[in-house]
């Protein structure tokens, strides 16, 4: 059992009269479940991404003695088997806060030996297409900024930078570069928004000294998981979808599993081509989503092996007609993400 589950003993000992505590009946169920562990944690953002997994013939009911699910703190933790691997599946909800809280609950409450996260994502790489499934080696949270005051430039120190709180090492987004006049032409005038500098997260590893912070921006997935996922290249994925009028629409080519270097997350839905291109050119990212970096940052701090697979549902901000039909191909992307996640989980027991 990983060290990050030790606080469970304290949590379960808290009186039921304390509102934040787990009810004693639930605590007993958690203890019973953990005696039948360990489990692989499967973390999913939303219902439409989770339902294809629950309907999959690869997913079966939990082993004898395990409940189908436990409800804790507004989350439903579902138990079952994928291949020969015992799993606990949980839906996070939208955004970084929800995904971080849910992942911490998963690791604190249950005997989890690793995390597989899957879902759909926006695409920042025009060489890939909708339906492709990206498996990034590194993830970053690109929503933590130091917003610089108007009039300051790249050579000016940020507020509190000298204290070690902020840095200019990761680069900035200068809004002046995107200013246009009323005719839509590039403007040389300044912009009161000035620019923002990207910041690493403060992290506090569970096996470190409490309250002594470290910093992390590019967080690698588990090395063994990533190498294992290379076996997924060549996996057959779905390339056609039946639309509302009953006709079948197909992508220009059959989607593929793409091993890529980087993905990023923030609690921002990116439907803007200029920002997509900035993220691609400045950080070299492929997948853009709203949850993964929070999951990986919690896993990093708690010492849990982690990997994420994200099916590309659209070229963020638009592109060719075929590349940005998220409303048409979102279900196909979700199914492809499930296909890849299930195959990866099966490899863990092979």
UniProtKB/TrEMBL annotation:
Residues 41-345 form the Nucleoside phosphorylase domain. Keywords: Signal. SUPFAM superfamilies: Purine and uridine phosphorylases. PANTHER family: PHOSPHORYLASE SUPERFAMILY PROTEIN, PURINE NUCLEOSIDE PHOSPHORYLASE. InterPro entries: Nucleoside_phosphorylase_d, Nucleoside_phosphorylase_sf. GO terms for biological process: nucleoside metabolic process. CDD domains: MTAN. This is Nucleoside phosphorylase domain-containing protein. Gene3D superfamilies: Nucleoside phosphorylase domain (3.40.50.1580).
